[in-house]
Design brief:
This protein is of the alpha/beta class and 430 residues long. The chain has helices at residues 34-44, 53-66, 82-90, 100-108, 125-137, 148-156, 191-201, 223-240, 265-276, 289-292, 325-329, 417-420; strands at 48-52, 71-75, 94-97, 116-120, 142-145, 162-168, 189-190, 206-211, 245-247, 282-285, 296-307, 312-316, 335-337, 345-351, 360-368, 375-378, 399-404, 407-412. It has 2 domains: 7-51 and 293-420, Beta Barrel (Lyase, Ornithine Decarboxylase, Chain A, domain 1), CATH 2.40.37; 54-291, Alpha-Beta Barrel (TIM Barrel), CATH 3.20.20.10. Helices cover 28% and strands 23% of the residues. Strands 1, 11, 12, 13, 14, 15, 16, 17 and 18 form a 9-stranded mixed sheet that branches. Strands 2-3-4-5-6-8-9-10 form an 8-stranded parallel beta barrel, surrounded by 6 helices. Helix 9 (265-276) links the parallel strand 9 and strand 10. The longest helix is centred in the middle third of the chain and has 18 residues, at 223-240. The protein binds pyridoxal-5'-phosphate. Pyridoxal-5'-phosphate binds next to helix 10.
């Protein structure tokens, strides 16, 4: 059995009985049944997100098995669909909410107050007002503050409940510069002042935990950073004492490329426990992406095929407003022609319908030759997919279908053109 070493290198290790063959560490795009996806595209039209709740459950189970003594909190911002939240809640996980709207959604989905962490990042007044109001009915919910100003603003609103202090651990990790939060001064109180902040807050609040989040998309290569973050948090927990939990964030990566190995979750869990040391507090982790990424695919239909000397541009009905990650993070998503999965491959650029050159889902990628009308599936679209969609170019957001136990049902209807102007008023003078 291989495990993490100090260089941070980590090989996917053979399951040692903790892993179930029925619950593999990753579901790849090619593991989805092409005909079933095609049938969904025909029935619900495209662009369409499909989210498989059975796979969400499997991901929750693997997380709970890897971290049996930890509290696992689902970072809801990866996918806030109600069916997903309910599935995660039923799997025994708590919810980590990044905004008042997520707190509302978690409560609506049946999370109890003690299963809700609200992690405020420069929270707008309206968010704090809302959360403090809901705290009145749910006194067990926990608010995480990453600035003394936020703590002051909570005090001003009469909040004296469960408080967690977000710490800037000075180490970050992640798949892209834009998602590394751990060393970004935007997030958390400075590490060397954190103990003083905790001590001062104890006068007015029930300080239950400390929190840090390194960033998103941690791979084996970042494990050294993750360990360092956890080690610092363990030290801090011992220094301040009397905490209920030490939350070391989320960021467990998933392999977006077909040849990337899956994250060895057990190795991450071992490294985390090891680095935390014997702090007299429960470990908490907050995976978002890991719970939902490989449970989702995006289906898009080819509407235009244009041959150029060096590439073929395949126009589809989904683009950066449907799935922002490629344009925003240069993210790689596997793409498959599910109408004709095994045709001869040609290099293609898959482009969306938005008037932006960044609006491409892939460039010069070998793909079974697409024809007009074919359906393309985009893999690992369950996390930060629908969530980051927008209506730029006045393009209505797609529908989403949820799958469970071999059945399918519409989870979110397609936006209509009429929805785009619904919020406009007649007030502007003209
Ligand atoms: C985004 C976020 C997470 C989840 O990150 P993933 O990469 O989706 O696991 C966890 N905690 C906090 C505070 C976050 O902002």
């Amino acid at each position: 059995m291989t495990g993490p070493d100090d260089s941070g290198a980590i090989a996917a290790r053979d399951p040692d009985g903790r892993e179930n063959a029925d619950n593999p560490p990753i579901r790849r795009l090619e593991d989805w049944d092409a005909e079933a996806l095609l049938a969904l595209a025909d029935e619900y039209d495209t662009p369409l997100y499909a989210i498989d709740l059975d796979r969400v459950r499997e991901n929750c189970e693997r997380l709970r098995a890897a971290f049996p003594d930890a509290e696992v909190r689902y970072a809801a911002k990866a996918h806030t669909g109600r069916a997903v939240l309910e599935t995660v809640r039923d799997a025994g996980m708590a919810a980590e909410c990044a905004a008042a709207g997520e707190v509302k959604r978690a409560l609506d989905a049946g999370f109890s107050g003690d299963g809700i962490q609200y992690t405020a990042v420069n929270p707008p007044a309206r968010d704090l007002d809302y959360v403090v109001e809901r705290w009145g009915e749910h006194p067990d919910l926990t608010v995480t503050a990453g600035a003394t100003d936020t703590i002051d603003r909570l005090r001003e609103r009469g909040f004296d409940g469960r408080l967690c202090v977000r710490v800037n651990p000075g180490v970050g990790a992640g798949h892209h510069e834009k998602v590394r939060t751990g060393a970004n001064a935007k997030f958390g109180v400075p590490y060397d002042r954190a103990a003083a902040v905790v001590d001062a807050a104890r006068a007015d609040f029930d300080v239950v935990g400390i929190h840090a989040h390194a960033g998103s998309g941690i791979s084996g290569d970042d494990l050294a950073n993750h360990r360092e973050l956890v080690r610092r948090m363990g030290d801090l927990a011992r220094e301040v004492g009397g905490l209920e939990f030490v939350d070391v964030g989320g960021g467990f990566g998933v392999p977006y490329r077909e040849d990337e190995p899956p994250l060895d979750l057990d190795a991450v869990a071992d490294a985390t426990r090891d680095a935390l040391g014997d702090a007299d507090a429960t470990l908490a982790v907050e995976p978002g992406r890991y719970v939902v990424a490989d449970a989702g695919v995006l289906l898009a239909r080819v509407n235009t095929v244009k041959e150029f000397p060096d590439t073929t541009v395949v126009g589809v009905d989904a683009g950066m407003t449907t799935l922002l990650r490629p344009a925003m993070y240069d993210a790689y998503h596997a793409i498959r022609n599910v109408t004709d999965p095994n045709g001869p491959a040609i290099p293609v650029t898959v482009a969306g319908p938005i008037c932006e050159s960044a609006d491409v889902l892939c460039e010069d990628r070998p793909l079974s030759r697409p024809s007009r009308g074919d359906v393309l599936a985009v893999g690992n679209a369950g996390a930060y997919g629908y969530e980051m969609s927008s209506t730029y170019n006045s393009r209505p957001r797609p529908a989403e279908v949820a799958l469970s136990g071999g059945r399918a049902g519409l989870a979110r209807r397609r936006e209509r053109l009429a929805d785009l102007t619904e919020l406009e008023t007649d007030a502007p003078p003209n």
